[in-house]
Write a structure and sequence with these properties.
The chain is mainly α. It is 47% helix and 4% strand. The chain is built from 16 helices and 9 strands. The longest helix is centred in the N-terminal third of the chain and has 26 residues. The radius of gyration is 20 Å and the shape is globular. The structure holds alpha-D-glucopyranose (GLC). The site of alpha-D-glucopyranose has 7 residues, from helix 2. The site of alpha-D-glucopyranose (GLC) has 7 residues, from helix 2.
Length: 426
């Protein structure tokens, strides 16, 4: 691992954050605001952790998968400990799991991460042993996704709750969310706004609908065979689907290396089907992919970073997507904003409605490098480092002035910095 001397402090600070937020067998995204284990936070964090110890990195994903549901779902939160500082807690979800979890999932970046932990490992024996145990679990999750979130076999899966996208309050969900009622939502007290400025978080109107969906699914006994058709919110997110495609490609590679040929074949079949289905999400006018509202049966006119994330899986026309990113970037001081700054709904400080997120930058840059667009990737990496140098390890950043927003001392932000500075091991 070679870190340039001028980056030493930055690197040490990132390591200190990873250490502070380490709970032994899992990390928390940040103290206070998010005191449990989050699904895609943990997976991406494992990429940073491996630079300080590969065994600990494998443990991070092993712990997550130890809480996979019998049907294959990997939940978005695992409530390892009791903590009153977060809402909605385990009693609200009421999923009946031995260790409480939430009842929804998150972007399946796990397969991609497993393959990188494996192929770039120094300890090959450990890597083989862990990958052999975890690969079938990742495969079960992917099969669960297509079986339960694509019951008609279109090739693309739907999210049933905005939280599943990982981009909680993106403008993408506004229309579909407006259809979700709020009658009968039990009175509740938000905790997030006790930790963070409310102007940087989702609105109350959004929260009421988030809670209605949770109650609705709970009333259906968290029976995943019923939730899709029963949900008034069913949206096909190109970001989520692209992550799934990339993870399936990775899973196929990994399974081949491990001699698990059935898993490899099934994963490649899923990739082929999804890749063909992606064409229906492309918008020529927008120069990017759009979300599809499965209830209203139409594309959603919302130009968010979810629609350029397919770059992560090499989907779509790279040049056009790069041009779209460049057009956004030209309107702000730091990239990549999570929404088109030219849209009147763009809000540079409110969570997923404009701010930059380092994990998104990293996935975009990774996909661009893989597609041979090294220059575009380098520009994004430079923005990521500029944001960190300007404002430290925040949860997200204002693209207009680079100020840090949301939670601080943030785990996956630190992990991405370690990745950037320690260099690619490939
Ligand atoms: C927020 C983010 C989500 C993340 C979680 C924990 O809910 O939108 O993507 O996983 O916080 O950091």
């Amino acid at each position: 691992m070679t870190v340039q001397p001028q980056d030493k402090d930055l690197f040490d600070n990132a390591q200190a954050i990873l250490r502070d937020n380490d709970r032994g067998a899992y990390t928390v995204p940040t103290k206070g605001l998010y005191p449990f284990q989050w699904n895609w936070d943990s997976c991406l964090t494992a990429l940073g952790l491996r630079h300080f110890g590969e065994e600990r990195a494998w443990t991070e994903v092993t712990t997550l998968l130890a809480h996979q549901w019998p049907d294959g779902m990997v939940p978005h939160i695992v409530f390892h400990v009791a903590d009153e500082g977060y809402f909605p807690g385990p009693d609200v979800w009421a999923c009946g799991r031995p260790t409480p979890t939430s009842g929804i999932t998150q972007p399946p970046v796990l397969g991609y991460v497993l393959n990188r932990l494996f192929t770039e490992a120094s300890d090959k024996t450990l890597a083989r042993e862990r990958a052999l145990a975890l690969t079938p679990k990742a495969d079960a999750w992917h099969r669960w996704l297509y079986a339960n979130r694509d019951p008609e076999g279109t090739g693309l899966v739907a999210i049933l709750h905005p939280w599943e996208s990982g981009r909680d309050n993106a403008i993408d969900w506004d229309e579909a969310l407006a259809r979700v009622p709020t009658e009968g939502v039990a009175p509740y007290q938000r905790r997030d706004t006790q930790h963070v400025n409310a102007a940087e978080r989702p609105t109350q109107a959004e929260y009421d609908r988030y809670m209605w969906l949770v109650q609705h699914f709970r009333d259906l006994g968290w029976d995943n065979r019923r939730l899709h058709d029963a949900s008034p919110f069913r949206v096909v997110d190109p970001g989520f689907n692209a992550i799934l495609v990339r993870s399936d490609e990775a899973l196929a590679e990994l399974a081949d290396a491990l001699g698990l040929s059935d898993i490899a074949t099934a994963a490649r079949d899923r990739v082929a089907k999804a890749t063909a289905a992606f064409a229906a999400l492309w918008s020529d006018a927008a120069g990017q992919f759009l979300c599809f509202d499965r209830v209203a049966d139409r594309l959603i006119e919302s130009r968010s970073v979810g629609g350029v994330l397919p770059l992560f899986a090499g989907l779509g026309d790279t040049e056009r997507l790069v041009a779209t990113i460049r057009r956004w970037r030209d309107q702000v001081a730091f990239g990549v904003p999570s929404h088109d700054p030219a849209d009147p709904r763009f809000d540079p400080r409110r969570y997923w409605r404009g701010p930059c997120w380092l994990i998104v930058n990293t996935m975009l840059a990774d996909g661009l490098k893989r597609s041979g667009a090294g220059e575009a990737a380098a520009a994004i990496d430079a923005d990521s480092l500029a944001l960190i140098r300007t404002s430290g390890f925040a949860e997200y950043y204002d693209p207009t002035d680079g100020s840090g927003l949301g939670g601080r001392h943030f785990t996956w932000t630190a992990a991405m910095v370690v990745e950037l500075l320690a260099g690619d091991r490939r």
